[in-house]
Design brief:
By secondary structure, the chain is α+β, with helices and mostly antiparallel strands. It is about 50% helix and about 15% strand. It has 2 domains: about 60 residues, no CATH class; about 40 residues, no CATH class.
Amino acid sequence: MNGLSGAWRVVRGHNRWKSAEQCGHHPHPGIHPMVVTTERDWGGWRVPGAEYDLDPNRVERQAEIIVRAPIFMKLLEEFVEYADQEPENLSEDLTKLAQIARGIISEVSQ
């Protein structure tokens, strides 16, 4: 999984632009998600503070999806492997899904 291995996880950084009191509407007042993709607690995905403030719930969901990207890719790869080994056991709908999965894997692998 080219570059998708390791312990991706959400860590929390302190808001530098607002105090916890100023952002009480955030899911986690005073902190924001950062996705780290290395063994260290740096490197990965961050969102600008202003964007987080506009829609913190959307950003929190993005972080949760991003941190699970490696397992999503593994799931797609295993599904495609099964589809390639057992094409006669797939319905037409699953065959179409396997084609979509192949496309996603190809796009990510480029």
